[in-house]
Task: inverse folding
């Protein structure tokens, strides 16, 4: 029996994704499953439709993929550039006029708010110039469809002459600034809690989204705002207090539960793991991972999963059988500086799912990390994390009060659970729970919702099988012993 080639597997999955997206009603659970299995959503053309549906936005079915549509999109991009340049000049003029008018006068609340908004916009304009989008200006390793190569690509989006790539336009930074300003301009809801505070790192996530959405600023803004509403809500507050508390209180206890040896090595170096992993959480790893195929693969998984998945993925990286070797060796030295550099370098060893494994002792496919993170979430769901905190480290009452203010611990948004039509299932509260216990396993476990996770039959056995995540490394080690 001959095994299928990687190309044929991608082609089959691309056809399956297309079929899922064309379903009416949409099977959202299966679309999430496809986002979490090997290769993710494969290419930009599919992501442009799938990401919209995964965040509960109905795209316009009348918009096709004809050459006429691509030409109009190209013209629109040029017009967007011109419009953004005009707005830039208008902002400079308005800022200069306001400064002249406010000179010598006392500051009011309105003036302070305006100055704060101008400060954020100025920060955005500086950040976009140093965002990850510059990585797409050479021969990008993205597979966003291009007009010239479309006729020579396979269903999976791979060119018959090599990797299909899309290069960012020279004015991509202007478009990125436009998306970011539009995303944070309006509050998510009324009151102080609805205010969005831009932070450095959001531009890296937005850059990857914009690139894969083929520089469609309108759709990119819609997706980014939905993510800000749910997954990134805690990062968009006045400060990172909630996320920092979460990492400082819960990260080391979970690492200890998953791998006591790694926990001991980190404790020997007395390293502040929360500050080290904070950039991973707020940028979804897009700043540290320079391989676009890996970065976009993680975004596929994060959009389709519980907002806490980046937290679990951080633990999966630290405890992976291959990646943890460096941590354990540095732990014997007890040097915090060396440990810091070592952990920061771990993401460089993560490669795309389709990469040829030249050295399995040093590189790790992204799919292994994602499945390990899902297995850790299944073993310790988000709400169960609070039980890991001891009374000595933080009183129980304080833990519960603080957790109540963190959006990642709250119930999922209505659109993320029932925004689209699900497969047949039973209704528990506001959540439709699928009946099938053996289908879309990853999607259910990554939902983080206990009533959905519990529908997976034999989840513990499945997560411990040799085909799941990094388990193959453990089985190889056992065979070598015998």
Result:
């Amino acid at each position: 029996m001959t095994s299928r080639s990687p190309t044929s597997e991608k082609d089959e999955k691309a056809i399956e994704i297309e079929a899922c997206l064309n379903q009416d009603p949409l099977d959202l659970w299966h679309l999430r499953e496809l986002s979490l299995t090997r290769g993710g959503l494969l290419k930009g053309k599919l992501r442009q439709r799938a990401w919209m549906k995964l965040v509960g936005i109905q795209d316009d079915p009348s918009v096709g993929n004809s050459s006429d549509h691509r030409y109009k999109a190209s013209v629109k991009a040029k017009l967007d550039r011109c419009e953004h340049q005009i707005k830039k000049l208008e902002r400079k003029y308005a800022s200069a006029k306001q400064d002249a008018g406010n000179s010598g006068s006392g500051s009011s609340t309105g003036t302070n708010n305006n100055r704060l908004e101008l400060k954020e916009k100025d920060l955005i304009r500086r950040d976009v110039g140093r965002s990850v989008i510059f990585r797409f200006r050479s021969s990008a390793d993205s597979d966003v469809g291009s007009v010239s190569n479309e006729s020579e690509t396979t269903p999976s989006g791979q060119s018959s002459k090599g990797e299909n790539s899309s290069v960012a336009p020279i004015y991509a930074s202007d478009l990125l600034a436009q998306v970011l300003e539009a995303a944070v301009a309006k509050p998510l809801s009324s009151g102080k809690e609805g205010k969005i505070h831009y932070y450095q790192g959001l531009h890296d996530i937005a850059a990857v989204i914009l690139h894969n959405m083929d520089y469609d600023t309108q759709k990119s803004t819609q997706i980014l705002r939905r993510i800000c509403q749910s997954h990134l809500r805690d990062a968009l507050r006045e400060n990172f207090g909630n996320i920092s508390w979460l990492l400082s209180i819960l990260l080391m206890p979970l690492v200890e539960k998953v791998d006591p040896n790694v926990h001991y090595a980190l404790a020997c170096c007395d390293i502040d793991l929360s500050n080290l992993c904070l950039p991973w959480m707020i940028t979804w790893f897009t700043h540290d991972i320079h391989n676009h195929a890996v970065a976009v693969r993680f975004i596929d998984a994060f959009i389709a999963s519980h907002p806490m998945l980046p937290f679990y993925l951080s633990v999966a990286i630290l405890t992976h059988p291959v990646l943890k070797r460096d941590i354990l060796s540095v732990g014997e030295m007890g040097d915090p500086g060396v440990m810091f550099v070592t952990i920061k370098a771990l993401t460089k060893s993560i490669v795309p799912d389709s990469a040829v494994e030249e050295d399995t002792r040093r590189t790790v496919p992204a799919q292994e990390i994602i499945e390990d993170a899902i297995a850790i979430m299944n073993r310790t769901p988000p709400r169960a994390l609070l039980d890991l905190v001891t009374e000595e480290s933080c009183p129980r009452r304080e833990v519960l009060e603080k957790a109540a203010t963190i959006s990642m611990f709250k119930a999922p948004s209505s659109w993320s659970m029932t925004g689209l039509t699900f497969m047949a299932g039973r209704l528990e509260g506001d959540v439709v729970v699928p009946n099938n216990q053996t289908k879309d396993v990853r999607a259910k476990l990554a939902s983080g919702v206990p009533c959905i996770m519990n529908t997976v039959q034999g989840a513990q056995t499945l997560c411990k099988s040799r085909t799941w995540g990094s388990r193959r490394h453990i089985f190889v080690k056992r065979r070598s012993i015998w």
